[in-house]
Amino acid sequence: SHQTLCLCLPHIWGHRQFHVNEIFLKIPTYPFYVAAPKVLDYNITVTPKDSTTVEMEFVPIAGVNRYIIRSLDPADPTFFKEDEVTSSPAEVTGLTPFTKYEFSIMSVNDAGKSQPTLPVTAKTRM
């Protein structure tokens, strides 16, 4: 008998080794699929800390390894910044004083990342 393995989707496997004609093969013993996180309502709160930093608070999601905070300046289409964080609250630094930004969050796990949340607007201090 033989077994066929299709690697069409991201998998995490337990493995069992066996010997066939001097070649060691690994076959899955229990496949399960890891799906990319869905966009969820994080109840995002953004608070200006100083002229170049804001603090973001959100509700962490089980099964998520990290988060990407996206910062956009609606008045400057060339400004685009992403910061990777692992917990909440998180600081976003390197912003321009007294500037209005749109912030969104993407959650990331082993299978990929979610779409960004709806943006939350906040302005840095002067």
From TrEMBL:
<protein>
    <recommendedName>
        <fullName>Fibronectin type-III domain-containing protein</fullName>
    </recommendedName>
</protein>
<feature type="domain" description="Fibronectin type-III">
    <location>
        <begin position="40"/>
        <end position="126"/>
    </location>
</feature>
<dbReference type="InterPro" id="IPR036116">
    <property type="entry name" value="FN3_sf"/>
</dbReference>
<dbReference type="InterPro" id="IPR013783">
    <property type="entry name" value="Ig-like_fold"/>
</dbReference>
<dbReference type="Pfam" id="PF00041">
    <property type="entry name" value="fn3"/>
</dbReference>
<dbReference type="InterPro" id="IPR003961">
    <property type="entry name" value="FN3_dom"/>
</dbReference>
